[in-house]
Amino acid sequence: MSQSVVIDKEAAPAAGGKLRGHPWLTLLTVAVGVMMVALDGTVVAIANPAIQTDLKASPADIQWVTSGYLLALAVFLITAGKIGDRFGHKSTFLVGAVGFAATSAAIGFAGSIQQVIFFRVLQGLFGALLQPAALGLLRGAFPAEKLNMAIGIWGGVIGASTAAGPIVGGLLVEHVNWESVFYINVPVGVVAVLLGVLILKDVRSEKAAKSFDIPGIVLLSGAMFMLVWGIIKAPTWGWGDPATLLFLGGAVLALVAFAVWQNFAEEPLVPLALFRSVPLSAGALLMVLMAFAFFGGIFFVTFYLQNVHGMAPVDAGVHLLPMTGMMIVGAPVAGFLIGKVGPRIPIVGGMLLTTGAMLGMSTLDIHSGNGVMSLWFLLMGLGLSPVMVGATEVIVGNAPLELAGVAGGLQQAAMQVGGSLGTAVLGAVMASKVTSALPGKWAATGVPFPDGEQGEQLKQAAQLGIAPPLPEGTPQQVVTGIADAVHSSFVSGMGVAFTVASVVALAAAGLGLLTKRGANEAGPAVHI
């Protein structure tokens, strides 16, 4: 009963026309802002094949459209969270929203794949400002016992935009052009900024840092850059190549130096005492493993739908609805459930469902029907919802208010590192399987497999499920045989990638046993 009175008092100013600082309107505002990021993720996945064709991009270039964005996010997220803690999450959120919308427009105007990648990197930097600030605003606006529900509803809104992205993006790619899918972020960004100016109120702890740990920022940013860069380039260079080992080893040394420095810094960037919380540490690692399995595996799905099954972009978006639709429903339900029983059971159950979905995805072939695809997509969306909501609440809720931005940055950084690692590792697994399988499957057509550069180009195209164009007059039997050889090679590689992803998802389910609900109350705060 006393909790209801607290919420009513918080709501009372809004009833008198004072909207600024209202918890639920704050939730609405940050959800609209982060909606751009969710739209961007699904739109880019749908647009990738069109970008690849229009700009004549290689498979490596297309991976960079995703990886460049992830790299910028991973390097800057924790520092961006600290910026929010220091200067206020409201102003940080507004700068992120404006920058994200502006760089989205710039991508639409880009005339080369290099420009697309460049602006995607800038977009990642602004996205890094936006996301931890959103979580910091929620952490400050809601009492601890309501935070999980707020994050659940927030996740549901993001799920709705994620579901709309493939449909809207598919229609735009099919009937306008791929550039237009980025322009949709502009009106969303305008709405987010207007709402932010009118509604958001900075909530900062009295204990918030008053200065920046510059050496810590340099060491951590350098470590994150070397780690993600080494992961991204490893499939090209080779995991045992000296350059790969140099970057990965440098990342480890920089992280060790960062950890040592944090013990001496007057106001450390990431106080190591934060990781004395076992649930928080488990939640961060859980996000890494979840993102590894999900983003690493799902990267291939749009190519499977469009290039193997020959679907138009909008049809591919419709086929992803069971997954994204379940995330719309599942996130608020997960928030409610976590409020009742805590995060442990929903997280473990969700990762077990995700493991089953990944195993199911590994069995898809070139003739798989819509029903079986929809089943695995549905299970994946249902499984991921409680994990994303629960792990976020575990990380942010177990951090003190003065480190809410850093905790939000840590949550997002863990997801981006996991996504980069999953895309690189599973991409390498995929490429290895496709290139080894293609010549043997090609031999069944009776057509000699090309040697040299032409053969390498065929293998690269097969990694995206693209069958080569054949001269006019080629017998239909040969055309069909070559297409089947390419598509079955792609599907065999995708199957191995999803099998590896399912093992990682199962490990994440075990890690979920160490999680528990956030224990920190809001504490003293300054309202600005």
From TrEMBL:
Residues annotated as transmembrane: 24-47, 62-80, 92-111, 117-138, 150-169, 181-200, 212-232, 244-261, 282-305, 317-338, 345-364, 376-401, 413-432, 490-514
Pfam family, any one: MFS_1
Localisation: Cell membrane
Keywords: Antibiotic resistance, Cell membrane, Membrane, Transmembrane, Transmembrane helix, Transport
Topology relative to the membrane: Multi-pass membrane protein
Domain of life: Bacteria
GO biological process, one term: response to antibiotic
Keyword Signal assigned: no
Gene3D superfamilies per the UniProt record, alphabetical: MFS general substrate transporter like domains, Multidrug resistance protein D
GO cellular component assignments: plasma membrane
InterPro entries in UniProt: EmrB-like (IPR004638), MFS (IPR011701), MFS_dom (IPR020846), MFS_trans_sf (IPR036259)
Predominant cellular place of this UniProt entry's protein: membrane
Matching SUPFAM superfamilies: MFS general substrate transporter (SSF103473)
Gene Ontology molecular function: transmembrane transporter activity
Domain Major facilitator superfamily (MFS) profile: 26-520
Record has Methyltransferase as a keyword: no
Name of the protein this chain belongs to: Tetracenomycin C resistance and export protein
Annotated organism of origin: Kitasatospora griseola (Streptomyces griseolosporeus)
